[in-house]
Amino acid sequence: MHAASREALERLSTALDKGLNESNETVGVGAVIGSELFDIVDILDSDRTLRVAMVDQSKSPAERSALAENLFGGKASATTVENVSAAVAQTWSNSRDFRAGLVQLGRRALLRSAEGQGQLDRVEDELFRLARIIEREPQLELLLADRAVSADARRDLLAKVLYGKVTSVTEALALQAVGRLQQRPVEELDALCDEVAQLKGAEVARVRAAAPLGEQQQSQLADKLEKIYGRKISVHTEVDSSLLGGAVIRVGDEVIDGSTAGKLQRLRRSLV
């Protein structure tokens, strides 16, 4: 996203947070705004003329806002229309950034709704677990990534996998992501997990361990990583018996390989 678009998104995110904080129904309002913004993005994706009109800098901000209000007034909640009107009044580098900005706002609204229910940690963990499930099922990921299949069909497939197993916020975020893929489904879900952690002021540590880690072990690991990186760390673990012992930890682009398999591999290389 270009600089002007990033600034626009930052202003809109601040305004969204302020509005939700002042609302007496943060949970419900956040959920409605999030889902309706996703619906509006779907409409924009299907209509190039409309996308261009929404960011047409030859029109004044007031004219663009009036267009949004005329199009979506009565079809979405007043708070959603207000957020879209504010968005089109901003300066965006291009229509792609504008649509991406609406997606980010939709995600933020849903996550604020989850936060209001005390479910942020759960949503973060569900997204991590879902990414790992799909990662272990290559055929499922291929089906979810198939651009020859409609977005609705991909969402229907994932909805069947998710039905009754995750929170409504996790489901909404995951379905939106696979319907509008920018990268592999697993990467989209991992990016969503990162967004949840960032909202909490943390960074994700993805840990593959040879054996399950208990709550105390995870807490101790988080403390150690926070001292190393100087920031809050959200630890997510999975079991990988092929490591033989120890663990592999990934924080951002940095990997710490303390596994037995990794040590053996390094030993073999040193003997060559």
Describe the structure in your own words.
- By secondary structure, the protein is an alpha+beta fold.
- It is 67% helix and 9% strand.
- It has helices at residues 3-22, 26-45, 48-54, 61-72, 78-88, 95-116, 120-135, 138-145, 151-162, 168-179, 185-199, 215-229, 260-271; strands spanning 202-209, 232-239, 247-251, 254-257.
- A 4-stranded mixed sheet has the order 2-1-3-4, with helices on both faces.
- Helix 2 (26-45) packs antiparallel against helix 6 (95-116) and helix 7 packs antiparallel against helix 11 (185-199).
- It is elongated.
- The chain starts with a helix and ends with a helix.
- The mean pLDDT is 89.
- This is ATP synthase subunit delta.
- Its main location: membrane.
Layout of helices and strands:
Elements: H1 3-22, H2 26-45, H3 48-54, H4 61-72, H5 78-88, H6 95-116, H7 120-135, H8 138-145, H9 151-162, H10 168-179, H11 185-199, E1 202-209, H12 215-229, E2 232-239, E3 247-251, E4 254-257, H13 260-271
Parallel strand pairs: 1-2
Antiparallel strand pairs: 1-3, 3-4
